[in-house]
Amino acid sequence: MKKRGLKNLMLKNKKKVVIVSTLFVLGSALILRNFNRDTSSQDYNFEMSERIVKLQKGEINNSVIVSGKIKSGEVSNVSSTIAAKVKSINVKVGDTVKAGDIICVLDDSNIVKEIESKSKSIEEEKKSLQDNYNKLSNQLEILKSAKDENSKKQNKLIEEAENKLNNANAELNSYEVTFNSIKNTYNIMINGLKDKQASRDNAELAKKKYYEEWIKSGGKVNSEEYKKYIEASSVLEQKEEELNEAKALYDYDNISNNYNESLATYNEKVSLRDEAKNQYDEAISNSIASANASDVEIDNIKTNMNDLNSQIQKLNDNEELKELKENLSKTVLKAETSGKITELKVNVGSMAEGIIGTIQSTENLILEVNIPEYDIKKLNTGMKVKISSDALLDKVDGELISISPIASSDDKGGFSADISINNGSGLFIGTNAKAEIIISSKENVILAPIDSIKDIDTNPKVLLKEDNGEMIEVPVIIGEKNDYYVEISGDNIKEGMEIEADINSYDSELDNSYSNGGN
């Protein structure tokens, strides 16, 4: 029988293999015990619960063993969001499909009729709106033309007012030279009379002051106050006479009259200039007001045109029609992901609404396991995993990708976790598998079954088989260990030596693992 076939047979008949192996080892032990009685002076009592294993070098993993079920790492549903009869089905359960493949087609006759009716209604409404839009467009062109004509008229009025203002400014500027000359002569005279005028004004103030003091004292003509008043009056007369003599020297009356006449003419020209400026400003204001009024009318028409255009665009992008067309596209149901059809809930002629089928990837597989509470602190996502299953000949690699932060509430307890499978070829969704989550690993060390160690926690020893067949106790140093194997070393421990192990703990699958290096 080939090796692969033998291994499969052993996996399927594990209990039988264990029984046969046990009987074989027991028989060997009896023969060995009788042989020792005949050939050795030492009477060593070899119990019927023992087996002999050969020490080998290999890799030992500090790990946590868990089990679970295989599931798809990528599951998608084929769903219908509309209620319609199934017209045709293109697949059956078990078929492999690719993303984009048509799964089934729904009856679209009612949706097509609704689309035709809605499209006709929209076209009629669009025509009415377009006619109104065209009328407003014509009105807009008329208003723009009228605005241009009025703008020309207003510009002409502004130009006339501007010319009048320029002429008034020119006349004012021209006369300003004459006026400034007369004004300069007048100011020179005023400056020349300034001191005389100031003396006369001061004398008048003094006279007024002494008069008030005289009246206040009683108004007696023989009083000191009256005397001061008379003296101040005399001084005022003198100052006025001096001022008049100075004015006569400057020809005050002629210069003053000439200045006043020139000032009146200048002010008149300023007034004419200001009036022309007001007319110019008014022409500008009227032009702006007229343009603004036209703009308001134009803007109102543009607003109405924009509203109509928005309504037309809204009809072009009609939500009801879009929804109908979208529903039409939904009558063809396609696969969103690649994988195998694992469920179909409809038949031709049945109503489809909601989930009608399920697609599960057979390439992207995940092992869903439950981690006991006492192991949860040892593990982290990213740890490497060895996966075994009755469906596999050899273990496959994986990785711990998620751990639930919340313990399960069911009787099983623990924490649910997912393990990605690097190569799931040969595994099937829903089947059971074991996972060895590797915490740490040590290579090229001598391994022994854990049940072969005596007093492992105090003074660890193994029963070593010597060349003459006798079993002797040998102390060993314990290194890394897991649930099944332990690393041992010592002065008398070498690869290839045979030691005694407990046959009650014998498991053919574990022995196969041990023969492969303890993995």
Main attributes of the structure:
519 residues, alpha+beta, Elongation Factor Tu (Ef-tu), domain 3, OB fold (Dihydrolipoamide Acetyltransferase, E2P), Helix Hairpins, 3 domains, six-stranded antiparallel beta barrel, six-stranded antiparallel beta sheet, 8 helices, 18 strands, 49% helix, elongated, disordered N terminus, HlyD family efflux transporter periplasmic adaptor subunit
Describe this structure in words.
The protein folds into three domains: 3-73 and 364-515, Elongation Factor Tu (Ef-tu), domain 3; 76-106 and 331-359, OB fold (Dihydrolipoamide Acetyltransferase, E2P) (Beta Barrel); 115-314, Helix Hairpins (Orthogonal Bundle), CATH 1.10.287. The protein has 519 residues and is an alpha+beta fold. Helix 3 packs antiparallel against helix 6 (252-316). Helix content is 49%, strand content 26%. It contains eight helices and 18 strands. The model is unreliable at 1-48 (pLDDT under 50).
Task: Describe the protein's topology.
Elements: H1 3-12, H2 14-39, E1 50-54, E2 56-72, E3 75-89, E4 96-97, E5 102-106, H3 109-192, H4 194-217, H5 224-250, H6 252-316, H7 319-329, E6 332-334, E7 339-344, E8 351-360, E9 365-371, E10 384-388, E11 396-403, E12 415-421, E13 432-449, E14 461-465, E15 471-475, E16 477-481, E17 485-489, E18 498-502, H8 508-515
Helix pairs in contact: 3-6, 3-7, 4-5
